[in-house]
């Protein structure tokens, strides 16, 4: 306000000057006009200084705002995991929004030991051999681009509410495409207001627990599953509650009886083994519930699951099922600056299909073929990581994760029983949208028989994001 009041003396001077001209001689008038012009010149220079000061302050504010945006982008997780809530509500705030995003990521890995060749560009603990020389002599160098990703998001307003759509894929082949660099669907998710259908993170999962690491597979004891589902979310201020029906998919093993002849039970000719005739049978979707609370210090989440684990025999038509259940508690705590502590504890029976690695849902209960039945396998998973940001351009993540199966008497000695992984890295963000860094990993696998194996590897990665709107 004071800057603008400086204009008032100028107006007063002009008025006084006009009256003086009418009352004075020509000489006096000239001198008075010269004095007034000098005063006006001085005041104009002062106003110019005020304008320059205001422009400098405005430029400083814009610079600070830009630095804050860049800092936030540097601190984004390289894997760019999005929570289910973010996927459902990542909109432009009205009208129509459209965004193409993704990144190219190249990995160079040196494995001091060896793992299953189909998984040699990531440390998936369940692929570590427990027999010397199982996959060849120690030492392997691997290049990979399979983490590269591309996604499309859209959102728009309609007379009945907000609509969103997400389609995202990567190049990491799994299942029948294991070991291949090939397109793979990650998300195909659509929402109308609070209702969603498609494929995205399971409602039983907390995606934000995934640490700021560069190895693809990540914590072995984490609930990590993208699933087809139908979901409804109830927003509650800074919290939300969601319920979902998810695609059932029982992970079962016939254990030590996989090669047993069916005639041992049916008194028939041995034309097939039990592994050939025992199959999963899923006719009821999994039920998942989730409550999440966001706070100034971070968030906490509690999720539960209930499922029918069905199985059948193709030769006799006999079918049966076991009940599966689980509870997943997780939190992300903001500590100092941008640092985050990430914790998860999950326990249940028959939830192996939802675990990141090594899980099995059903296994033979007894160490005998006659009169045997299936049992839901208990599982315990732990995740503990700390993401630290040294400054705007450097970060590190360190942590450990484990999974333990309370295996049954009917499981084979070479089957997975427990595993753990530990990671530490140093990542550099030289400019917006670029990350380069290295990571050291250690993993261990233990079989039902007690045989174990470990692996140590080093990874160097370069990731370049596509520019976003």
UniProtKB/TrEMBL annotation:
<keyword id="KW-0732">Signal</keyword>
<protein>
    <recommendedName>
        <fullName>Porin</fullName>
    </recommendedName>
</protein>
<dbReference type="InterPro" id="IPR045748">
    <property type="entry name" value="DcaP"/>
</dbReference>
<keyword id="KW-0175">Coiled coil</keyword>
<feature type="signal peptide">
    <location>
        <begin position="1"/>
        <end position="23"/>
    </location>
</feature>
<feature type="coiled-coil region">
    <location>
        <begin position="30"/>
        <end position="64"/>
    </location>
</feature>
<dbReference type="Pfam" id="PF19577">
    <property type="entry name" value="DcaP"/>
</dbReference>
């Amino acid at each position: 306000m004071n800057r603008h009041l400086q204009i008032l003396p100028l107006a007063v001077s002009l008025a006084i000057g006009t009256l003086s001209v009418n009352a004075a001689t020509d000489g006096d008038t000239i001198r008075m006009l010269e004095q007034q012009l000098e005063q006006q010149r001085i005041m104009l220079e002062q106003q110019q200084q005020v304008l320059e000061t205001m422009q400098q302050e405005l430029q400083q504010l814009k610079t600070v705002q830009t630095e804050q945006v860049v800092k936030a982008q540097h601190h984004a997780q390289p894997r760019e995991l999005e929570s289910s809530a973010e996927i459902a509500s990542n909109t432009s705030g009205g009208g129509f929004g459209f965004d193409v995003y993704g990144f190219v990521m190249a990995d160079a890995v040196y494995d001091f030991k060896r793992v299953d060749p189909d998984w040699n560009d990531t440390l998936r603990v369940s692929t570590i051999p427990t027999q010397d020389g199982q996959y060849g002599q120690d030492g392997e160098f691997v290049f990979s681009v399979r983490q590269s990703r591309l996604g499309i998001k859209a959102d728009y307003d309609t007379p009945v509410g907000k609509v969103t759509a997400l389609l995202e894929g990567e190049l990491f082949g799994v299942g029948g495409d294991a070991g291949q660099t090939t397109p793979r669907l990650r998300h195909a998710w659509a929402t109308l207001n609070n209702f969603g259908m498609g494929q995205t993170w399971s409602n039983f999962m907390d995606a934000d627990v995934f640490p700021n690491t560069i190895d693809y597979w990540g914590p072995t004891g984490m609930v990590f599953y993208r699933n087809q589902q139908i979901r409804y979310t109830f927003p509650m201020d800074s919290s939300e509650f969601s319920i979902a029906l998810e695609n059932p998919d029982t992970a079962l093993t016939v254990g030590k009886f996989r090669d047993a002849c069916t005639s041992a039970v049916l008194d028939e000719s041995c034309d097939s083994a039990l592994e050939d005739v025992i199959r999963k049978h899923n006719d009821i979707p999994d039920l998942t519930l989730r409550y999440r609370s966001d706070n100034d210090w971070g968030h906490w989440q509690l999720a539960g699951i209930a499922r029918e684990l069905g199985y059948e025999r193709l030769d006799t038509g006999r079918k049966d099922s076991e009940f599966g259940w689980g509870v997943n508690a997780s939190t992300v705590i903001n500590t100092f600056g941008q640092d985050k502590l990430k914790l998860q504890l999950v326990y249940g029976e028959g939830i192996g299909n939802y675990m990141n690695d090594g899980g099995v849902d059903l296994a033979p209960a007894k160490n005998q073929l006659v009169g045997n039945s299936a049992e839901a396998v208990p599982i315990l998973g732990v995740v503990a990581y700390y993401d630290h940001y040294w400054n705007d351009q450097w970060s590190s993540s360190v942590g450990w994760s484990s999974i333990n199966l309370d295996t049954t008497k009917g499981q084979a000695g070479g089957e997975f029983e427990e595993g753990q992984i530990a990671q530490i890295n140093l990542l550099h963000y030289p400019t917006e949208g670029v990350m380069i860094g290295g990571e050291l990993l250690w993993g261990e696998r233990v079989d039902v028989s007690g045989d174990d194996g470990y692996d140590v590897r080093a990874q160097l990665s370069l990731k370049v994001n596509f520019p976003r709107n």
